[in-house]
């Protein structure tokens, strides 16, 4: 054998790993005599080399029999648990961030999504760092990457558990949040025991970077969830106007044009969840004594439409025409407008004194929620083959139903509670109804009438969800004299 360099085996560190140097240069490390022979074999040393020969190998801190802490099974268990936790946390971060990063309406919400995707990328990079840090530690930053991934997991799961505690709904995901939270505490404890900060080149800059990232995420969450919805109120311009009627000498009817118009004059695009226009004919008896007000009974006070006149008595409203405007699921972006013209037919000898046109619709703010595609398909309540909701028309009447899931624009909210659904009921004979709740027709088939469903719902939940998603009603009405219209009629 030719002359070979003197091999020096350094003392074992506290993990039992012994570095191998040749001419002061580290060429490898080993946890056992067997691993030492593998390292030397790769460098060209013979397999039967006498490792106890001091002319070839110099041992520091103990001879070839000193491998005090070689607990390979323990290291492998720690590595497996670290990898499992970081992998689960990476999937969680990507799952939360992806929906917001590609589908959120506002820049702040997209920024939050991107931050979660970046956190997932960091945790993905920390996976090989785990193997290196609990292995031979050839990469100086491996410990810092693992620590950063663990801190991200702890921060995110703490936030998720806090959000879940606000709702306290029984969901399977909370088990994952709790498991990852406990794992992050265990992992952080292990890293503290390992004094991982010793391997970080600039620990103060590292701590500052983590703090800035956390503050950016908190500010973005607050801006997108609280400030932005408040600072950008919605505003609509609505019109319901009767035009000049026309008739024919041979026809007993008068045709009255009705123009409906809506414009989103605010800064927030919205979904129209349900809409309706109705034309009412007013019939009342004349009260010569002027005591018509004494018959007022407060009907309609809930909607703010109560009224009374001294010389009107026993006023009756009759539904002349009713229909949908744009249709549930349609949208009105900021600055967008929509108009429709209809023709209302009344007899020439009508007993109606006035006509009242009402345009109303319920809106859902797009900066707070997003409707599922299934919401756009309508169901008829009186057709049993169409499935999820059926009720005999002689019991419940006839309703066109729209039903689908609604997702909050901040995906952190979606993953910490049960799914929410929007259900709307429209009928030309009744006021349109809409509610958001956890009630799902698909899983809870029902044959109850609408009022039965409402009674089964949690009223507090319905009000809370309406406020959360910005569900509200906008309306306008226009009243004209029938005699005045008839005088304007064109022949």
TrEMBL record:
Keyword vocabulary terms for this entry = Membrane, Transmembrane, Transmembrane helix
Can you say what this protein is called?
Uncharacterized protein
Q: Which domain of life is it from?
A: Bacteria
Its transmembrane ranges are 77-99, 111-131, 143-164, 170-188, 208-227
């Amino acid at each position: 054998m030719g002359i070979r360099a003197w091999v020096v085996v350094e003392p074992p560190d506290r993990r039992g790993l012994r570095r191998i140097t040749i001419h002061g240069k580290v060429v490898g490390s080993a946890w056992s005599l067997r691993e030492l022979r593998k390292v030397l074999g790769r460098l060209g040393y013979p397999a039967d080399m006498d490792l106890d020969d001091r002319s070839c190998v110099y041992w520091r801190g103990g001879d070839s029999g000193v491998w005090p802490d070689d607990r390979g099974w323990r290291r492998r268990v720690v590595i497996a648990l670290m990898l499992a936790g970081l992998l689960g946390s990476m999937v969680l971060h990507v799952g939360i961030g992806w929906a917001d990063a590609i589908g959120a309406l506002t820049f702040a919400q997209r920024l939050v999504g991107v931050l979660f995707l970046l956190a997932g990328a960091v945790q993905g990079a920390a996976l090989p760092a785990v193997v290196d840090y609990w292995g031979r530690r050839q990469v100086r930053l491996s410990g810092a990457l693992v620590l950063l991934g663990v801190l991200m997991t702890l921060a995110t799961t703490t936030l998720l558990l806090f959000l879940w505690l606000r709702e306290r709904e029984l969901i399977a995901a909370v088990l994952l949040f709790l498991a990852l939270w406990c794992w992050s505490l265990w992992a952080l404890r292990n890293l503290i025991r390992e004094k991982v900060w010793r391997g970080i080149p600039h620990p103060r800059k590292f701590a500052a970077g983590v703090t800035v990232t956390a503050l950016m995420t908190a500010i973005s969450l607050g801006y997108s969830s609280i400030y932005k919805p408040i600072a950008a109120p919605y505003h609509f311009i609505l019109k319901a106007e009767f035009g000049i009627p026309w008739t024919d000498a041979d026809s007993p009817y008068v045709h009255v044009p009705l123009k409906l118009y809506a414009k989103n004059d605010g800064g927030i695009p919205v979904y129209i969840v349900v809409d309706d226009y109705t034309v009412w004919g007013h019939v009342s008896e004349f009260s010569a004594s002027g005591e018509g007000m004494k018959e007022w009974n407060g009907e309609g006070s809930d909607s703010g439409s109560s009224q009374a006149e001294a010389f009107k008595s026993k006023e009756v409203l009759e539904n002349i025409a009713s229909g949908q405007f744009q249709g549930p699921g349609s949208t009105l972006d900021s600055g967008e407008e929509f108009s429709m013209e209809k023709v209302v037919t009344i007899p020439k000898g009508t007993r109606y004194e006035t006509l009242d046109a009402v345009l109303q619709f319920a809106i859902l703010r797009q900066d707070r929620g997003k409707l599922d595609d299934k919401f756009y398909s309508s169901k008829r309540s009186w057709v049993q083959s169409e499935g999820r909701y059926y009720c005999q028309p002689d019991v419940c009447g006839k309703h066109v139903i729209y039903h689908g899931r609604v997702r909050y624009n901040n995906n952190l909210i979606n993953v910490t509670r049960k799914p929410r659904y929007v259900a709307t009921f429209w009928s030309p004979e009744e006021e349109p109804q809409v509610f958001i709740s956890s009630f799902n027709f698909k899983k809870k088939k029902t044959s109850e009438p609408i009022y039965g469903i409402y009674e089964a719902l949690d009223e507090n939940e319905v009000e809370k969800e309406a406020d959360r998603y910005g569900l509200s009603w906008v309306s306008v009405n226009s009243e004209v004299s029938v005699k005045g219209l008839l005088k304007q009629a064109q022949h």
